[in-house]
Automatic annotation (TrEMBL):
Keyword check for Nucleotide-binding: no
EC numbers, comma separated: 1.1.-.-
Family: Belongs to the HIBADH-related family.
Keywords on record: NAD, Oxidoreductase
Taxonomic source organism: Actinomadura rugatobispora
InterPro entries: 6-PGluconate_DH-like_C_sf, 6PGD_dom2, 6PGDH_NADP-bd, HIBADH-like_NADP-bd, HIBADH-related, NAD(P)-bd_dom_sf
KW Oxidoreductase (keyword) present: yes
Annotated protein name in UniProt: NAD(P)-dependent oxidoreductase
GO terms of molecular function: oxidoreductase activity
Enzymatic class: oxidoreductase
Length: 301
């Protein structure tokens, strides 16, 4: 499929760019390639990640500048707002810069809104569309995606976002997608903290851990975190690397605490969970899946 200078293929479909082919991004990009019907151009500093995307049908770009010239809409899946800001500066400075940048990372709300205002002056629209759910959901294209955008832009992007997610929520204006994602993760981490404490108490009192979790799932304590994440990790006591590490959980919860601080709201429960996550990191589990926090709760850390 040939690409015009206007960032669309010869049939008029926008050319899509994707930057950030990590654990989640590589799977999201793969679904965009398979399902969107659009030309997808990609860039990542890790060559193997680019090779895998190209094998699926994406086209390689030598750098961010080349991708900016070719793509009309660019999707980002990056570690933090710092990387998002840096990449967006390159995108907006490039000749033939993209029309829309969609940040699918989990990013600071205020800095997202400030970045959107700066990009607007260059004629580039920033949409925040962070994702929730596990790696398998990224593989299956069943992510939850919360979107901060105008109604018109949301309508334009929804068909492409639907290639990667099964639940696409218009959260309101710029930054609101990030608010939704940050609060989702805050509640998740607090839930996991509570489950770690419940499991520790139950075992100490002579109750089988697996039986405890199965029983909690039958009552009002039921949750996705209980049925999926806690049961899969805390019961077998397995906390692999290259899942969602403690360091990432700390970063995301810090965003919630900052958001609360900006609104003049105190979060004692979230603060306690942050302290537990930081102790987990300091005990050497920073790169392990964050439910490893139980090791600190039960005294093994």
């Amino acid at each position: 499929m040939s690409v015009t200078r206007e960032g669309s293929d010869m049939a008029g479909t926008p050319v899509l760019g994707f930057i950030g082919l990590g654990v989640m991004g590589s799977r999201m990009c793969a679904n965009l390639v398979r399902r969107s019907g659009a030309t997808v151009v990609v860039f990542d500093p890790v060559e193997d990640a680019v090779d895998a995307a190209v094998a699926l049908g994406a086209r390689r770009c030598a750098g961010i500048g080349e991708l900016a010239r070719d793509a009309d809409i660019v999707f980002l899946s990056l570690p933090s707002i710092a990387e998002v800001e840096s990449v967006c500066e390159e995108l907006s400075a490039a000749a033939g810069r993209p029309r829309i940048v969609v940040d699918m990372s989990t990013s600071d709300v205020q800095r997202t809104r400030e970045l959107a205002a700066r990009l607007e002056k260059s004629g580039v629209a920033l949409v925040d569309a962070p994702v929730a759910r596990l790696r398998q959901a990224a593989e299956d294209g069943t992510l939850l995606i919360t979107v901060g955008a105008t109604e018109a832009r949301f309508a334009e992007l929804e068909p492409f976002l639907s290639c990667m997610g099964s639940d696409i929520v218009h959260a309101g204006g710029t930054g609101n997608g990030q608010v939704m994602k940050i609060l989702n993760n805050m509640v998740l981490f607090l839930n996991m903290n509570a489950l770690a404490e419940a499991l520790t108490i139950g075992r100490a009192a002579g109750v089988d851990g697996a039986l405890l979790f199965r029983t909690l799932a039958l009552g009002s304590a039921d949750s996705f975190a209980l049925r999926r994440t806690a049961t899969a990790t805390m019961i077998p006591d397995e906390f692999p690397e290259r899942a969602f590490p403690t360091n990432y959980a700390i970063k995301d919860l810090a965003l919630a605490l900052q958001l609360a601080h900006d609104q003049g709201i105190e979060l004692p429960a979230a603060g306690q969970t942050m302290a537990l996550l930081e102790r987990t990191r300091d005990a050497g589990y920073g790169e392990n899946y964050y439910p490893s926090m139980i090791k600190l709760v039960d005294g093994r850390g």
